[in-house]
Specification:
This protein is of the alpha+beta class. It contains two helices and two strands. It has one domain. The chain has a two-stranded antiparallel ribbon with strand order 1-2. The chain is elongated and about 70 Å long. It starts with a helix and ends with a helix.
Amino acid sequence: MKTQALVSSALAAALSLGVVAQAQAQDKAKEKCFGIAKAGQNDCANLSGSHACAGLSKVDNGVDEWKYVAKGSCKSSGGMTADEAKAKIKK
């Protein structure tokens, strides 16, 4: 009986490592995209520093607001990089 529990625990641990690795790979396959977040749907703090949390954007498509998108899809979504957003804010 103890052997079965040990094997089950080892199998569960091995499977959980695969899930963690997959989640990390998905995080790396994303990028911040500015100017596409709808009000209340931003992913974190904005460039202007008026808030520091997800879901606090007040306007749709605010230049300083961002959300994660699949890497390489920001431009096709109508978004911009952090540097482009900063330049637009300065104008």
